[in-house]
Amino acid sequence: MAPVDPHSFTDSTHPLTTHISLSLYFDFSSSTILASALLSLQNPHTGHLTLDTRSLSISSVIDPLTNTPIPFSLSEDTDPVKGQFLTISLSNLSKFLIVFSTSPSSSALQWLLPPQTFNKSFPFVYTQCQSIHARSIFPCQDTPAARICYSARLNIPRQLSAVMSARHVERRLPVAAEAGPVCDDSAWCAEGRVVEEFVMEQPIPPYLFAFAVGEIGYREVGPRTRVYAESVPAVLDSAASEFAGTEDMIRVGERLFGPYDWERFDLLVLPPSFPYGGMENPRMVFLTPTVIKGDASGAQVVAHELAHSWTGNLITNKTNEHFWLNEGFTTYAERRIVEAVQGEDIAALNIGIGWKGLNEDVERFKDNMEFTKLKTNQDGVDPDDVYSQVPYEKGFQFLWRIERQIGRPAFDEFLKKYIATFKFQSIDTDMFINFLKVNVPGIENDIDLILWTEGVGIPSDAMEPVSNLYTKIISLAREFSLGRMPREDEVADWKGQEWELYLENLPKSVEASQISALDVRYRLGETKDYEVKVAFLQLAISSKCRDYYVEVERTLKEVGRMKYLRPLYTALVQGSGKEEEKIFAKRVFSEARDTYHPIAQSVVESILTKYV
């Protein structure tokens, strides 16, 4: 066996899947999906074919032309990272049908009970397939090296509606016999069931497969954009207001990077348990409600997910070992969009926050510097465990360094050519470097490309942003250790990003009395901006200012975004002399665990296992 990806059982000698046709029956009472997947290969294959699965029950594999069974086996052992491999024995076949069901423990799915939703009337389910969780929804070659088109029929309760990372075809009544072996017609065509059909005609990596089912409404915010959310007027209205400028950002993206190739750019605001800030699913970006801040600053997360429409979705890293090709490029593209729409100072604040995050994550990996590289070795490593700002921010710094070397106009032309050359392909770091050297002759003489991509830490020619506002905020943060708090006139115009940058740059070892005094003046512990609140609460924890532990607990129980869970739980349990905090962290997690997405549960468990 010759694997194409350290996180997949896919064999390089096997043909890749080109299309998957899914039939999915949602059983909310058991938190499972009864399903079938018709897989189409590049060409007919004879012999074994290996697919990735996790927590799936495989009922049968069928030749769709003859309706006869095809031999298959599911590995007895479960790899802790990759799951189980499904081996199918084919005889000159290019299509086969797999009948299966998901389990309640699917790592991609979070099933919410009605009390966990805004309206508390109906259940809700949504996916998060990145990095390697599509295999827990359907058997597939779960590697970004294998791009697929797909179609899907979702059979759901009539009171609910569905959205997908695909074009919506129709909502209709179920038809007898269309479910095939998935379930009986008595279930498929039961009173109160409807079918929603979708199709994705452009090849995408499996991690971009996505759906959500629940009581979902929407608002129109532009010619190409609707904002979807749970059907609560206040949530929909605030989301529509926050993201009203989306069309302007799309137009800026097209001017910088070329045509927008996905037709629609819709947004879905998910319940608070969503583990990421955003997920760039094509046509239907998923967002955490924590990005709705009331001042349009949450649009920066949308700018990042929009930028993925070119870098990540059109051009994809071949494996997670080259994740920076997705995230470094997208962070660069996001900041170019933000600069054009919101101005240079705001873009500089964005870069400054990223610079601080990069330095902190390089420190986090000081005992395993492999994960401070852009091109990493992830054999035997769960990508969720080593997720960090490094591929985002070091990747951004690398591209920014190239821009400074050759000038922005030349780099813009290079980017457009790069995107046009590799669109709808999956590539690795070596392919990018070769393309760079061909199109920017002599660049390897000016920039140490090997040091940047294969070296550890932060290269000496990386740099902080240059901006009067950025410099002022950093200066004020340094003065705090001398006992000087910023005056009200100095922060009168500050919004969330300014406060986040200020707090992130305060010394970690300050007196509890200083933290309390800062909060008395500016009420940072009560802010609805979670970026600011979490930065403040980290300081409160590090200074053992236990007055704020009630707010820490409330925050850890309100949201499931890993950007907040990871630093707060780590601050509580990392280091010596924290027995009380460790007991506190374990209790809070035991009470909050079931409200987190399975990916977030696993990340917090790994933190507690390491330090408690």
How does this structure look, described?
The protein contains 19 helices and 20 strands. Strands 1, 2, 3, 4, 5, 6, 9, 11 and 12 form a 9-stranded mixed beta sheet that branches. The protein has a 5-stranded mixed beta sheet with strand order 14-15-16-18-17, with helices on one face. Strands 7-8-13-10 form a 4-stranded antiparallel beta sheet, with no helix packed on it. Helix content is 37%, strand content 22%. It has helices spanning 185-188, 233-242, 246-257, 299-307, 324-342, 344-364, 390-406, 408-422, 429-439, 443-446, 449-454, 468-480, 496-504, 512-522, 530-542, 549-558, 562-573, 579-592, 598-611, and strands at residues 17-27, 32-53, 57-63, 68-69, 72-74, 84-101, 109-112, 124-127, 148-157, 161-164, 167-172, 193-204, 211-214, 216-222, 225-230, 266-269, 278-279, 284-287, 315-317, 425-427.
Main sheet?
9 strands, mixed
Instruction: Give the low-confidence spans.
Output: none
Mean pLDDT: 96
CA(first)-CA(last) distance: 39 Å
**Number of DSSP helical runs:** 19
Short account of what is shown:
Helix content is 37%, strand content 22%. With 612 residues, it is α+β, with helices and mostly antiparallel strands. α3 (246-257) packs parallel to α4 and α6 (344-364) crosses α7 (390-406).
What would the keywords be for this entry?
612 residues, alpha+beta, 37% helix, 5-stranded mixed β-sheet, 9-stranded mixed β-sheet, single chain
